[in-house]
Design goal:
binds fe (ii) ion, about 210 residues, 10 helices, mainly alpha
């Protein structure tokens, strides 16, 4: 990716625009999951090392930046259009901007590229997996399993704001079974549990 438009710059922008810790963590979780799909796609193309890293970078950046403007401009008229406008002025690459626009159903931007599809597929799921971790006594993502996630998806009262149809539709867009999608994102978030604040709490034993 072009210099100055990598993960570090994306994270700095997310932090500049977003004060909420949970919204920052959401951006990071979506970034981690979306980047995992970028790495898989790079592998499919036979890339490795620095080439694979560079291929996956726009995926990571789109994840970090997709809700960048949400805290300041949450309305449907503004989000994600204001953020994308700002990023375009800064010179961020169009594929990243396209994916950010396409993650919003109402934007009129179709999900065309693999990056567009991956970002959409990971957005709701990253939030859902975070919710699954936070209801564990340990609050650890390491205690979350795919079977449990599938069960919770059927429980309408649990994390009711998360659109199950977007998680299911995301797997379809990527052309993989739902279970594989859940497993891919869960594994990615487990690998970065510390950064996401989901590596668990110490449970105090009663005397
Ligand atoms: Fe999001």
């Amino acid at each position: 990716m072009v210099d100055g438009f990598g993960r570090a710059a994306a994270l700095a922008l997310l932090e500049e625009w977003t004060a909420s810790d949970s919204l920052r963590k959401h951006g990071m979780a979506v970034s981690i999951c979306t980047e995992a799909y970028g790495r898989r796609e790079a592998e499919r193309f036979g890339l490795s090392g620095a080439e694979a890293e560079a291929f996956a970078e726009p995926y990571a950046c789109a994840g970090l930046l997709h809700d960048m403007d949400y805290e300041r401009y949450p309305s449907l008229e503004e989000h994600p259009f204001i953020g994308v406008g700002h990023l375009r002025e800064l010179g961020w690459p169009e594929p990243v901007l396209h994916a950010i626009l396409a993650h919003a159903d109402y934007s009129g931007t179709a999900r065309e590229s693999h990056l567009d599809k991956a970002l959409f597929a990971c957005d709701e799921l990253a939030g859902f997996l975070t919710a699954c971790a936070l209801v564990k006594p340990t609050k650890s993502i390491h205690d979350v399993e795919v079977a449990g996630v599938k069960k919770k998806m059927k429980d309408k009262a649990f994390a009711r704001a998360v659109k199950r149809e977007d998680i299911i539709g995301g797997a379809e867009l990527l052309g993989i079974p739902l279970e594989e999608h859940l497993g891919n994102c869960l594994k990615a978030m487990q690998e970065w549990a510390g950064e996401l604040g989901l590596d668990g709490v110490v449970i105090q034993q009663a005397d």
